[in-house]
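Order emerges. For instance:

***
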Amino acid sequence: MSDLPASPVPQGRYAAAVLVGGLAYSAGMTPRRDGVLTVVGLVGEDVDVPTAAAAAGVAATNALVAVAEAAGGLDRIERCVRMTVFVACAEGFTALSAVADGASAVLAERLGEHALPVRAAVGVRALPGGAPVEVELTAAVKGAT
């Protein structure tokens, strides 16, 4: 699928993505490469904002790969519709949007600014495996109903 990495392998009993009613939905994707987290820890405590933003980019890439495979190829993605970026962060950390911008940057680079979704950035206490970020992505698929 062009220069995208291999599809992420689910870390539990779930699908990486599903296609329903013209929309492809990804599972929550963490910043894994070849099944291994690239970074762990709490943002604002163990992980700085630039590192967390880069991790969000890795997670967004994984989510994009998953929805593209569900859609039948990256060229079938009409646009991203919604993205939620969960940030495992230290108490009082508020630069959630700066971290989530790393995920948005990847989508803009891969699909163009016009394909950017609406987005939520949510601070949480913990994520699977100690990941600092997790990304969920919903994309509209061309010609799917």
About this structure: The chain has a mean pLDDT of 94.
